Amino acid sequence: MKETEKQTAKPPYGILAVLMIGAFIAFLNNTLLNIALPSIMTDLDIGPSTVQWLTTGFMLVNGVLIPATAFLIRKYSVKKLFLVAMGLFTIGTVLSGFADTFSILLGGRMLQASGSAIMMPLLMNVMLVSFPIERRGAAMGIFGLILMAAPAIGPTLSGWIVEHYDWRMLFHFVTPIAIAVFILGFFMLKDKKGKVDIRLDLFSLILSSVGFGGILYGFSSAGNKGWDSPHVYLTIIIGLISLITFIIRQTRQTEPMLNFGVFKFPMFALSSAITMVLNMAMFSGMLLIPIYVQSIRGISPMDAGLMMLPGALVMALMSPLTGKLFDKYGGRVLAIIGLGITVVTTYLFSRLALDTSYSHLVILNTVRMLGMSMVMMPVSTNGLNQLPPRFYPHGTAMNNTLNQVSGAIGTALLVTIMTNRAETHGAELAKAAMQNAGGAQLSETAMAQIGLQSTLEGINFSFFISTFIAVVSLILAFFIKRAKQAEDPLEVNKQVSQSKVAGEE
Question: Is the domain of 92 the same as that of 212?
Answer without folding.
Answer: no
